[in-house]
Amino acid sequence: MSSLSMRRSRHRLVGVSVVAAGVVAVLVSVVALAAGRVAVRQPPSAEARSFQARLPRAVVRIPARGAPIIVPRSFLGLSAEYWTIPVWAKHLALLGHVLSLITRDGPMVLRIGGSSADQTFWAPTKDSPEWVFETSRSWLRQVSRIVHRFGVRVILDLNLVTATPQIAVRWARAAEAALPPESVVGFEIGNESDIYSLASWQSLTGGDQASRPLPQQMTAAGYASSYRTYASLLARMDPGIPLLGPALSDPAAHLNWISRLLAGAHPGLRAITVHRYPLSACSHRGSKTFPTIARVLSENASAGMARSIGGAARSARRAGLPVRLTEINSVTCGGRKGVSNTFATALWAPDALFELLRAGASSAAVHVRANAINMAFSLTRRGLVANPLLYGLALFSRTLGPSPHLIPLKLTTKPSLRLKAWAVRVGGNTLHILLIDKSTHAARVSLQIPSTAPGSVQRLLARSPRATSGVTLDGQHLNARGRWTGKATTEMIRPGTGGYHVTARAMSATLVTATLSPGALTSTHRR
User: Fold this and answer.
1) Using one digit for the tens of pLDDT, what is the confidence trace for 308-355?
2) What pTM value is reported for the model?
3) Residue 375 domain-assigned (yes or no)
4) CATH number of the domain encompassing residue 254
5) Residue 333, SS3 per DSSP
C-alpha cells in the first residue's frame, strides 16, 4: 500500500466517481446526532482562515442521475461464538446499551457460531471430551432472554465436523422449540469448511472423538452432499426451515464451493454465506496479509475486501439469493495487539461496511470473540470495555435511519489525498455524507449538495491511528455503563459560495448532516 505521508502538489485535480467511495466520511443526519447541547462555533479567526486556505482541496458532488442502493434492514449485525453467550447473559443491561449504539434500522441479527460451532453438542448423554462445548436448556434460556429483551433475531451455526447430521439436527430441533417464534433467521451449515485442516483438528481434539471420526478432508462436492443430508433431516423437523451456507473463509479462491452447491439440489437454502477478514494474525511477517496499521487503513482492507465477495454475490444473485457476511473483522486469528485494537479499525469499519454494501452484501455481522484482541467490546464485572472498533460501528449506524439509500457521489480531489466519501439519504429529506480521512494531512472539502439549510458536523477523533483509548465521537466517549459521557461538540455550518465547506482532519472521520431542498434527490435518483 502507498505511504501514509502526503505528497503536496504535483497532482492536478481529477474527478473520481463513487457510489460511496473516497477516503473521507461526512455524515448528514439530524436524527442521528448524539445527545448533548450543540456548540455553535464562532466564525474562524484570521489565522484559522489562513490555515484552511493552505489545505489540499476536495469537492463532493451529487450527480444529476444515479442508481441509489437500498440499504437492507438489519444490515449491520454481530457474530459471536457459542461460549460467548453465557458471558453476555451476565451483563444484559450493558449488552442492551451496546446494541442500541449499532442498531438503527431494524432488529439486530446475531449469528452464533464460528469455530465453536464444530465443537458444540446438544445435551450430550455421556461424558464429553474437554474440547466439547455443551449447549443445554440453561444456555437456550440465556439466548431466549436476549431475544425477548432486545428483539434480537438469531442465526445458529450447526456442527459439520465432529457431530453426525442426526446429532446436529437434534440440537436444531431443541433450539427452535425453545426460542421465541420467528426469532430464528436460519441455520447455517458448517463453518469455513473450505479451509478445514485435519491436522489442526487432531491437535485440538487430542484424538478424542465425540461422535464420529474426523473427516480426512472437506471438498466442494463433499460439502454439497453434506448440505443435502442436513437439509433432508431438517425438513422432516420443519419443511419450511431456512438454511444458509456454505460459510466460506475465502469466497474468491473457493467460489467453486458455491457453484457446486447451487448446481445440484439445495432445498431450503435462503442465503449464500461467506466470511471476510482482510488481514490475519496467523500470517508470517513477510506476507501481504500480516496485520499492520498501514494495511488496516489501506484500500485493500476495505474496497479490496469488498471486491473479494464479487463472485459470490453474482452467483447468489443468479440463483435469486442474497449473500450474507456472517463474519467480518479487520484481522482474523484473534487479531494482533497494537493493530486490531487501535483507532485505525474505527476508521476501517464504516468504510469497509459501505464497500461491502455497494458490492452486493445484504448483511454483515462483525465477529466479537470474547477476550480476543480484535473484539469491538467486552462486557465485564467492571463494566463495558469499548474498543475503538465499537466507535466505528456506532459511526456507521449514525449514517442510517428511516428508509436509507446509498447515494452515488462524485469526489474530485488530488489522487495523493486518501479520502473516502459516502452519502446516505434517509427519511426523504435528510442527507448523510460520511467523510473519512485516512491520511496524515487535513483537507478542505466543499460539499456541493442540494441544500440551503444549516447543517451539523460531528467528528470521530483520537490522538493517532495507533491509539487504543481516548477515542471520542462528537466529543463524547463511552463510560463503563455503556453511556455517552462528556459534552457534545456538534458544530453548526451554513452553506456559502460553492456549498458547505468543512475541514476533514487527518486520521479522522467527519459527519455532516443537512436537510435537502424540497424535491431534491428523489425523481432523478432511481435504481
Assistant:
1) 999 999 999 999 999 999 999 999 999 999 999 999 999 999 999 999
2) 0.90
3) no
4) 3.20.20.80
5) coil
The answer to whether residue 249 is domain-embedded is yes
Q: Would you state the cell numbers that stand for residue 260, as one nine-digit string?
A: 457446486
From the list 13, 29, 33, 65, the residue with the least C-alpha distance to 451 is 29
Asked whether residue 173 falls in the same domain as residue 313, the answer is yes
Q: What's the per-residue H, E or C state across 356-406?
A: HHHHCEEEEEEECCCCCCCCCEEEECCEEEECHHHHHHHHHHHCCCCCCEE
Measure the N-to-C terminal CA separation of the chain; round to a whole number of Å: 34
Q: What total of structural domains would you count in the chain?
A: 2
**Residue (of 354, 404, 484) closest to 33 by Cα position:** 484
In a domain, 280, yes or no: yes
- Identify whether residues 61 and 80 lie together within a single domain: no
Please give the residue range of the domain that contains residue 99. Answer: 73-369
Rounded Cα distance, 251 and 260, in Å: 13
Rounded Cα distance, 353 and 372, in Å: 21
Calpha distance 445→501 (Å, rounded): 6
* Grid cell in block for residue 110: 446475531
One-letter amino acid for residue 111 of the chain: R
Length of the chain: 527
Written as one string, the DSSP assignment of 164-216 is -HHHHHHHHHHHHHHSPTT-EEEEEE-S-GGG--HHHHHHHHTT--SSSPPPS
Q: Are 183 and 153 in contact (CB under 8 A)?
A: yes
What is the rounded distance in angstroms from the CA atom of residue 378 to the CA atom of residue 386?
7
CB distance 350 to 300 below 8 Å = no
Are 168 and 311 in the same domain? yes
All three cell numbers of 348: 476501517
Tens-place pLDDT, residues 69-108: 999 999 999 999 999 999 999 999 999 999 999 998 889 9
Are residues 415 and 428 located together in one domain of the fold? yes
Amino acid identity of residue 350, one-letter, is P
- Same domain? 99 vs 184: yes
C-alpha cell recorded at residue 24: 473521507
Please check whether residues 159 and 49 belong to one and the same domain.
Answer: no
d(CA 202, CA 462): 44
User: Coil, strand or helix: which one is 447?
Assistant: strand
418, β-bridge pairs: none
My answer on whether 26 and 112 are in the same domain is no
Q: Residue 206: is it exposed, middle or buried by C-beta count within 10 angstroms (0-12/13-18/19+)? A: exposed
What rounded mean pLDDT belongs to the chain?
89
Look-up: residue for cell 422432516? 236
Contact predicate 104/400, CB 8 Å: yes
